[in-house]
Amino acid sequence: MVNWSNMDTLSAYDALTKAKKVDLTEVMAGENGAKRVKEMSVAMGAGLSYNYASKQVDETIVDALADLAKEAQLTDKYAALYNGEVVNTGEKRLVLHQLTRGQLGNDVIADGVNKREFYVNEQNKIAEFAKKVHSGEITNAAGEKFTTVVQIGIGGSDLGPRAMYLALENWAKKNNHFKMEAKFISNVDPDDAAAVLNSIDVAHSIFVLVSKSGTTLETLTNESFVKDALKKAGLDASKHMIAVTSQTSPLAKSSDYLAAFFMDDYIGGRFSSTSSVGGAVLSLAFGPEVFAEFLEGAASEDELAKNDDIRKNPAMLDALIGVYERNVLGYPCTTVLPYSQALSRFPAHLQQLDMESNGKSVNRFGEPVNYKTGPVIFGEPGTNGQHSFYQLLHQGTDIVPLQFIGFKNNQLETDVNIQDSTSQQKLCANVAAQIVAFACGKKDDNANKNFAGNRPSSIIIGDQLNPKTLGALLAHFENKIMFQGFVWNINSFDQEGVQLGKVLAKKVLAHETDGALAVYSQLLNI
Amino acid sequence: MVNWSNMDTLSAYDALTKAKKVDLTEVMAGENGAKRVKEMSVAMGAGLSYNYASKQVDETIVDALADLAKEAQLTDKYAALYNGEVVNTGEKRLVLHQLTRGQLGNDVIADGVNKREFYVNEQNKIAEFAKKVHSGEITNAAGEKFTTVVQIGIGGSDLGPRAMYLALENWAKKNNHFKMEAKFISNVDPDDAAAVLNSIDVAHSIFVLVSKSGTTLETLTNESFVKDALKKAGLDASKHMIAVTSQTSPLAKSSDYLAAFFMDDYIGGRFSSTSSVGGAVLSLAFGPEVFAEFLEGAASEDELAKNDDIRKNPAMLDALIGVYERNVLGYPCTTVLPYSQALSRFPAHLQQLDMESNGKSVNRFGEPVNYKTGPVIFGEPGTNGQHSFYQLLHQGTDIVPLQFIGFKNNQLETDVNIQDSTSQQKLCANVAAQIVAFACGKKDDNANKNFAGNRPSSIIIGDQLNPKTLGALLAHFENKIMFQGFVWNINSFDQEGVQLGKVLAKKVLAHETDGALAVYSQLLNI
After folding, report:
1. What's chain B's Rg over C-alpha atoms?
2. Which domain holds residue A137?
3. Least CB-CB distance to A383: which of B33, B187, B447?
C-alpha cells in the first residue's frame, strides 16, 4: 500500500535540504574529477549510459536522494501504476503507456479487455496495414503506391512522433529501412497545412488523422483542409486517410477512413509515441520492424526503472537530482542539449512531456503545494546552441542545469577529416569540453573573461542513435518525469491548465465576449 | 555626455521597486479591462502595434519606467551608439547594425570609410549578383540556372537568416517573389551537412559560406564537407560558392569563391540578419527588392526607438517592462509565442539575440553586478504550444511572462470555413483567448481546475507577416535588447562566455587533456 504524501512532509526531504552542498570546481578538479567521471555512471537500456559526475552531488547527497526515493515509495508507486491502479486520479484513469512496450507486472484488465493484448493487437493491425502499403497491396485509386505519409495531429500527436521520425530518418535511409517520407500538419494556422500540401504529391500521400476524442479543433479543421485539397485534386479522400483514435470516438467506425487504429484514455497524448499515435506513422515511414525495435529499447528502460537501488535506476536518479536542483538549489529551468542534429526536435518533445506533466501547483488531492514543481525546459542541438544561448548558460546571473546527450558515431557514416579530426570527433570534443567548462570554469583577472563554473550537467552517452537507443532515451525521460511527479505528489497525467483557453476561444468564435476579450478580438479582426 | 551607471545606483530604479504592484485579475476585469486594451497600445513600425494591456503595469508604473529610462539616459545611449561611439567596450568596437538599414544620425567614419556607404555598397553588390543569378547571367559550369542556395554558417550566421527565410518563404511563393529555395547547414554534426546535401541537387546549388573571421571551426569544416561532395559530383567548387566575410579574412580575396561580400567587426553575428549575412541568402532566395523592403521595415522601427517619450517608443517600453518583470517581480524566463507557423524559428533566433546579448554577470567596466540580467528565452508557435507547455504557463509554480505575436491575415490566403469560422479566425481567437485566460484566470472550487491568473503578456499585432513587418518585428527585439543592456549597464555586444568551451574543445582534439576532461573524451571515443 503506498502513501501519497507531499514532499515537504517527508523527513528524507528535510535531511536532503541540510546535506552539505558540493562545489563542482573543487570536486571536478584533477584526479578526483577523473575518478568521478569514471565512477558516477549508471547503465541505461540499449547500451546507453547516464553519467552524472558533473552534477552537484556526492555519495552523501546520493544517499540522501536514495532515502527520499525510499520514503516517497517511488518504485512502489511505479509498480502501482503498471499494475493498473488509478494513478491519474484527476481524470480517474489508469496510466498505461509502458504497457505498449512490455508486460511489467500483473495483467491489466480494463474495459473488459487485457490491455497489453489490446495494445499488441493494434500494433499487429498497424504492421499488417503498413506492409500492405509498402508491398503495393493497398494503393491509391489509380493503383499506384503511396510514397508519403502525413500525420495530422497536434501536441502529443505531433511533437513526439515528429521528433522520433526526424531522429530516425537518416538512420533509416542509411540502413535500408526508409519506406516513405513523413510530413506533419499541426497548427491551426492555415499556412501550415497549405505549405505541407504544396510540398507533397497528394495523389501518392496517405494521411493519418490522430485525435483521441475525435473532437480536437485544430486536427478536425486541418482534416477538412486536407479533404478540400484532395477533392480539388479529383481524389477520393476516404482512400487516402486512416484514423488513429479511441474506439468510442465518432471517427472509429466512419467510412471516411481506409482503416482505424485505436488508442485509449489510459495513455496521455504526450506519452503516446509508443502507442498507435506514433506506431502508425513510424511503421509506415520505416516499417513495423523498426517500430518494434524502438519499443524494445523503451521496454529495456522501463525494466531498469523498477530497480529499488537508485544507483542502478538511471531514471530515478536523474529524477531525484532534478528535484534537488529545483527545490534545494532553487534552479528554475533545465536545458536539453543533444549533440546530434537528428535530435533537433527532441527538446521540443521533452518540453511538452515535462512541462505539461509537472507544471502543476496542486497535489494529487487538489491541494496547493508549498514548493516548486516542474521547471521550464528548453533546448537546441549542439554545437548550434554553443553559438547561440550558451553565453547566458556560462556567464548569466541564473544557473541552468544542463542535460547533454552524445553519441560516439553518427548515423549516415559520411564524414570528412579536417585538421586531423573528423566532424564527429569535433562534435564529441565539443560536448566533452562544454561539460568541463561549465563544471570547472576558469579564473581570469578580467571579470568579463572569468568563468565561475559550478554549472551542473549530466550526459547520456550512446554508440549511435538508432531505434533501440531512441526508445531507451524516450522512456528514460518519461520515467524520470513520472518519478518527479511522484516526489512532488502531483498528478503528472492530467492537463487541466489547457482547458480555460479552449473555452474562451470558443466564446470568441461565437462572438460571445465582453470586456477585454471583446476588444482583443476586435484588434485581431475576428 | 552619457553616464554608464549600474541600475541599482539609480534613484528611479529604487522608486520603481516601491511602486504599488498591479493585480491583473482586478484591472483586466470588466469595462476597465476593455479600456486598458483600447488604450495601452503603441504604434510600431510598418503598421504593427505593441499592446501591453495585460502586463502588470498601470500609468503609475509606466511613469516610473519613464523616469528610469530618463535617468539611465537610454535614448542618449542609443544616439551615442548610432553616432559611432565605441559602445562595445569589451571588444573596443562600434555597434552599427542599425546603419545597415538607415542613417540615423551623423556620418560614421571607421577604417577610413563612411560605414553607411560601405553597407549600402555591399547591398548593391549583392543585389547585382543576385539579379545575375536569377537572370541566368551567372550559371553553373553547364550554363544552367542555379535553383537552390545553401547557407553554411552557425549561430548568428544561421539562426537569424534561417528564421527570416522561413518567415517569408510562403509569402514570397504567394506573391511571385520566390526565386530560389534556401537550405542551411550549421551543425558540425556530419549528418547535418550530409542530410542537406542528400536533399538537394548540388549541380544547381550555390553555397554561401558565412564566417566573419574565416576561422569558425564548424563553418570551415562544413565547407570542406560540401567541397568534397561537389568534387565527387565532378563539379568545380569555386563555381558554386560565394563568401560573406570580413575584408581582412583569408576568404576575402580567395579564388575559391565566385564572389565575396563583406561584413565587419561592428556588427555582431546575432545582429547581422540585415547585413550581408542575411542579405546574400535572402536576396538570392527572394530578390533584392524583398530584402530592401525588409530593411525598410527595420529602419522604421529604429527611427521610433529614438523617441524620448516611452509611450511612443515601443522597444523602450517593452524593454523596461521586461526589466521590471525580471528585477522587481523576479521572473526568470520569458516565452515568445508567435501565432504564425511562418515564425516557427523566430523564437530560436530571439533566444540567441537575447541570451547571448544580455546573459552577463559583469557590467561594461568588468565589475560584477548585484542584480539579475537577461532571462531565459524560449518559445514555439501557437496554437502548437497550447497543446504542449502552456499547462505550466497557466498552472505551474513559476510565472513566465509571455510575448504573443499575431497577424490578422495569413500569408498563403488559402483557408477553409469550418463551423462558421476560418482557420485564421480560429488562430486569432486562440491568441485573444489565451491572453485573457493568463491575465484574468478563473476561480474554481476544484483547485485542480483553478486558474490564478495574473500571468502577464503583451501582444504585437500586424495585418500580415511580410518583408516590412518582419523587418520591424526583428528591429523591435534588437532594440529592446539593446535598451535592456543599457539599463543593466552591461555590454550587450560581446560574448566572452563562448570562449572557454572553444579552447577546451581544441585541447581535446589535440589530445592535450587530463583529469575529468580526459575521461569524458575517452567515454566519447575521441
Report:
1. 24
2. 117-294
3. B187
Q: What is the pLDDT of residue B523?
A: 97
In a domain, A126, yes or no: yes
Query: Is A143 contained in some domain?
Result: yes
B370 touches chain A (CB under 8 A): no
Å from A235 to nearest chain B CA?
18
Which residues from B are below 8 Å from A388, CB to CB? Answer: 155, 159, 270, 348, 351-352, 355-356
Contact between B159 and A388 under an 8 Å Cβ cutoff? The reply is: yes
The whole-angstrom separation of Cα A81 and Cα A281 is: 27
Q: Which residue in A268, A161, A211, A336 sits closest to A491, CA to CA?
A: A268
Confidence band of A216 (pLDDT split at 50, 70, 90): confident
Residue A85: active-site member: no
**Residue A396 forms contact with B (CB below 8 Å):** yes
Nearest to A56 by CA among A508, A339, A406, A455: A455
Q: Note the pLDDT of residue B253.
A: 86
Give the distance from residue B77's alpha carbon to the nearest chain A alpha carbon, in angstroms.
21
Segment A478-503, tens digit of pLDDT: 999 999 999 999 999 999 999 999 99
Instruction: Enter the C-alpha cell of residue B120.
Output: 549600402
For cell 556620418, what's the residue? Answer: B107
Percent of chain A whose predicted confidence (pLDDT) is above 90: 96
Euclidean distance between CA atoms A170 and A166, whole angstroms: 8
The verdict on A232 touching B (C-beta cutoff 8 Å) is no
In whole angstroms, give the CA distance from residue B178 to residue B181. Answer: 8
What element of type H or E holds A149? strand A148-152
Which residues lie closer than 8 Å to B232 by C-beta, 6 or more apart?
Answer: none
Domain boundary, last residue among B274, B295, B316: B295
Q: Establish if B524 touches chain A: CB-CB under 8 angstroms.
A: yes
* Beta-bridge partner residues of A271: none
- Widest CA span of chain B, in angstroms? 74
pTM over 0.90: yes
Distance CA B100, CA B122 (A): 10
Closest chain B residue to A500, measured at CA: B437
In a domain, A383, yes or no: no
**pLDDT greater than 90 at residue A348:** yes
Q: Decide if B380 and A406 are in contact by the 8 Å CB cutoff.
A: no
Q: Give the end of a domain, one of B295, B320, B354.
A: B295
pLDDT of residue B68: 98
Residue whose grid cell is 502586463: B55
Rounded Cα distance, B449 and B452, in Å? 10
Q: Average per-residue pLDDT in chain B?
A: 97
Query: What residues in B contact A507, CB-CB < 8 Å?
Result: 433
Determine contact: A472 vs chain B, CB below 8 A. no
Number of domains in chain A: 2
- pLDDT digit string (tens) for A3-46? 999 999 999 999 999 999 999 999 999 999 999 999 999 999 99
Alpha-carbon distance of B259 to A230, in angstroms, equals 45
- Asked if the peptide bond before residue A139 counts as cis, ω within 30 degrees of 0, the response is no
Helices marked H in B206-328: 217-232, 276-286, 288-304, 314-323
CATH number at residue A252: 3.40.50.10490
A33/B515 Cβ within 8 A: yes
Length of chain B as a residue count: 526
**Among residues A352, A355, A363, A358, which one has the least CA distance to residue A373?**
A358
The model's pLDDT over B72-118, given as tens digits with 9 standing for 90+, comes to 999 999 999 999 999 999 999 999 999 999 999 999 999 999 999 99
Q: Is residue B117 part of a domain?
A: yes
Q: pLDDT tens digits for B108-153?
A: 999 999 999 999 999 999 999 999 999 999 999 999 999 999 999 9
Give the model confidence (pLDDT) of A439-477 as tens digits. 999 999 999 999 999 999 999 999 999 999 999 999 999
Q: How confident is the model at residue B212 (pLDDT cuts 50, 70, 90)?
A: confident
